[in-house]
Amino acid sequence: MTGFRERYLKTVHHTIERYRLVEPGDCIFVALSGGKDSGSALYTLTRYVEERGVECRLQPFHINLGFPFSQRVEEVVEEQAEFLGLSLKVFHASDYGVDMERIAKLPRPICSSCGLVKRYLMNRLPRELGATKLATGHHADDFIVFFFKNLLGGNLEWSSKFVPKLPTRGKQLGRIRPLFFVGGEENRRFAEEVGLPHLKEDLCPYSTYGCGVDRSKRMWLEVIDYISRRQRGFRRRMMTSIMRLAETLSTQRPETQPLRECRICGEPTSGEICAFCRLLEAQRRVD
Ligand SMILES: [Zn+2]
Q1: 287 found inside a domain
Q2: 147 C-alpha to center of ligand 1: Å?
Q3: Contact criterion met (CB below 8 Å) for 194 and 43
Q4: What is the strand order of the sheet 165-166 is part of?
Q5: Is residue 165 part of a domain?
């Protein structure tokens, strides 16, 4: 094994161990998007469970959003699960009333609707199937970008959930982020080196063309890259500080507001009707 691969696995496995991301008896649903990040998360979790002999279940799953390119994405996700000898569960957003073609016509950014649908189904479906935790491929760069954006926008408290592990809260399934201390480029290199199948580029036409969210993220990624090349351990130190800040924020402002349940679907929400049900309602009004 190369030095890089060994160091990468050591960092990720140390994160899993130190923050108790995997515990005996767990049923962990791992969300796959076909990319290098979620693929690496599944790979490292699988290796960890094998090496340590932890009695738990890893269940990779994918949400097919029903775009014209979704079939291609599903194929790659299928290859990833097969590569690791695991069986994949695929859910179709259309089975839950979602019609992305209609949603694309709504006067709201498609990327935010898409994210909303994914977040909702990623919480509800695994939980209904007995998941104890949800694992995602979010990595250090994602958190550093959001952290800077939140800081600049004056929304410091939005960073309070930037930790490797969030416990289950009512119907809100607990989250684990094994890639918390590694960056996107490291995930790409790792996936390449171990030969893990993954999509080399983002197939979504909406994110490639003119999505402002994406352009600003790219700019931040360049900034992070620029600093990392000049300052050793930048990502790790940033992440340690962001995590400490998140912990301070959540002790100072404990979540006193109990989560409510959506009047229509029963899923957790801060209001009376959840954002997903409101989106479906708006979708019905599109002609
Ligand atoms: Zn709802």
Answers
A1: no
A2: 28
A3: yes
A4: 89-92, 57-64, 27-31, 133-135, 174-176, 165-166
A5: yes
Q: How far is the CA of 280 from the centre of ligand 1 (A)?
A: 9
Ligand 1 centroid – CA 118 distance (Å): 14
pTM for this entry: 0.94
269 C-alpha to center of ligand 1: Å?
A: 8
Interval 144-188: pLDDT, tens: 999 999 999 999 888 999 999 999 999 999 999 999 999 999 999
Q: Token digits for 267?
A: 């899923």
CA–CA separation, 29 and 131 (whole Å): 6
Exposure letters 149-160 (e unless 16+ CB within 10 A, then b): bbeeeeeeeebb
Distance from Cα 211 to the centre of ligand 1, integer Å? 27
- How far is the centre of ligand 1, averaged over its atoms, from the C-alpha of 248 (Å)? 31
Provide the domain limits for residue 189: 3-257
Q: Which two tokens stand for residue 118?
A: 């994914």
Q: What is the CATH number of the domain that holds 240?
A: 3.40.50.620
Q: Measure 261 CA to ligand 1 centroid, in angstroms.
A: 8
